[in-house]
Design goal:
Blueprint (H helix, E strand, L loop, with lengths): L7 E6 L8 E9 L5 E11 L3 E6 L23 E3 L6 E3 L5 E3 L9 E7 L2 E5 L10 E2 L15
Antiparallel strand pairs: 1-9, 1-10, 2-3, 3-4, 4-8, 5-6, 6-7, 8-9
The structure holds FE2/S2 (inorganic) cluster.
FE2/S2 (inorganic) cluster binds next to loops.
């Protein structure tokens, strides 16, 4: 597939997520059957440049990770945590390293930073007032994709 065929949606500006912070976004995605379904995601930032995105669904009992406390990170900020039963996930890989679903993983998203925007690549999102199709990028722009 050529690069210009990948669907790229702008999710937010990079400065809307501070280093050490994680944020939820409630998106919508079209299924293969054409139905529009909720698509909750979480994006976390590590340091100045690294953004990691996952579907906001815990592999244990499919709860939102921010269930209860409304937060995504452990107190020390070193792992993602499910608020329901406390499973902890490596931020960079999404692997559950402790808790009820140890060894399973969050579903990773392909993110790109394009001209100061955090963008989601390759998902059939339904554009709304929050998201927009990023169709103005070209080969000169910096693109980082995680997990790489
Ligand atoms: S639902 Fe996440 S640890 Fe149980």
């Amino acid at each position: 597939m050529s690069k210009d065929k990948i669907e790229v949606f702008v999710i937010c500006r990079t400065d809307e997520i501070w280093p050490g912070e994680a944020k939820a976004f409630s998106l919508s995605r079209r299924t293969a059957e054409g139905e529009v379904r909720p698509f909750p995601i979480v994006i976390t930032r590590v340091g100045a440049r690294n953004f990691y995105g996952y579907v906001n669904v815990c592999p244990h009992e499919h709860s939102w990770l921010n269930f209860n406390a409304g937060t995504f990170l452990t107190a020390d900020g070193k792992a993602l945590q499910c608020g329901r039963h406390g499973a902890q996930f490596d931020i960079a890989s999404g692997l559950c390293v402790a808790g009820k679903c140890a060894g399973q993983s969050l579903t990773p998203l392909a993110l790109a930073v394009i001209a100061g925007d955090v963008c989601l690549c390759g998902e059939p999102l339904v554009a709304d007032e929050r998201t927009e199709v990023a169709n103005e990028y070209d080969d000169t722009m910096e693109i980082m994709i995680h997990p790489g």
